[in-house]
Specification:
alpha+beta; five-stranded mixed sheet; 2 domains; 278 residues; Heat Shock Protein 90
Length: 278
């Protein structure tokens, strides 16, 4: 092994995900400049990934702290309170805190699973997007009724995709939850599925307050929420974004006519797919 190569191996051995410092090009032959630059680009990517990982952990811990503090507070009240009405209220808030913590943990697990899948080739099968959409809409019927919101689907009879079924279901679930969360009572969430040039086009439109266009580039970042918004977790659209990336798709935002937000997703169709309108 040559001395420069031995030096490079020693320098790389000193680096890790926690300490991915760039290599000093002056330590290597001049004709190694391109290779050293490529290694430094890789090390910079490792550094950014590590920073994002640590930031995600810190933000997740911050989000969990509030509902867990509520659980602890109302558990303490239940342990010492003798007034039945106060105990009943404390139990109600404790159950809310447990439900909120459970939902956040579920979202964190879903997001982490997608991050892992993005680093490998997913196992795909033929999935009917229309059938899956009808199933997910049915799963949200009770929530829609509680919020007095109508769910409306416009779609062909079938739309076959090569997809990871669980990730595609997560995509639809989080899109509908997000739309229902922001749509006011006595309004409608519209779900549309179309086929165009070997791509499935999924549109989910709500009639809520919308998101300013200046924030559209940020909404897919984990834990992002608009200023003044304290409800929700800021993970739903991040999960949707990762699921779209997993399927080599595209995602964009638009304003819903009359007010609100429309999420547009394009996913590759199976090669033999053709629209069959019911």
């Amino acid at each position: 092994m040559s001395d420069p190569l031995r030096q490079l191996c020693a320098d790389l051995a000193q680096r890790s995900a926690q300490h991915p410092e760039p290599l000093d090009p002056s330590h290597y032959p001049a004709d190694w400049t391109t290779a050293v630059a490529a290694l430094n680009t890789l090390l910079a990517d490792v550094a950014r990934s590590q920073q994002a990982h640590l930031r995600f952990i810190a933000e997740a811990a911050h989000e969990l702290r509030s509902p867990l503090a509520s659980v602890q507070l109302h558990a303490d009240i239940l342990a010492s309170e003798t007034d039945p009405e106060i105990s009943r209220q404390a139990l109600h808030y404790l159950q809310q805190g447990v439900a909120r913590s459970s939902r956040l943990c579920q979202l964190l697990l879903e997001h982490s699973r997608l991050e892992v899948l993005l680093g490998k080739e997913p196992v795909r099968s033929s999935i009917d997007l229309v059938q899956l959409a009808r199933q997910v809409i049915s799963d949200h019927d009770a929530l829609a009724v509680r919020r007095n919101v109508s769910l409306r689907l416009l779609a062909p009879t079938t739309c076959i995709l090569p997809a990871d079924a669980r990730s595609l279901a997560l995509l639809l679930d989080n899109l509908l939850r997000n739309a229902l969360h922001h749509t006011p009572a006595h309004s409608t969430v519209d779900i549309s599925i179309q086929q165009h040039e070997q791509r499935a086009v999924l549109l989910v439109s709500d009639h809520g307050p919308g998101i300013p266009e200046s924030h559209w580039a940020q909404v897919f970042q984990p834990f992002w929420r608009a200023a003044g918004k304290h409800s929700g977790y800021g993970l739903g659209l991040a999960i949707v974004h990762d699921a779209v990336r997993l399927h080599a798709g595209r995602i964009s935002l638009d304003n819903t006519p009359g007010g609100g937000l429309t999420v547009r997703i394009e996913l590759p169709l199976a090669p033999s797919s053709s629209p069959q309108i019911s």
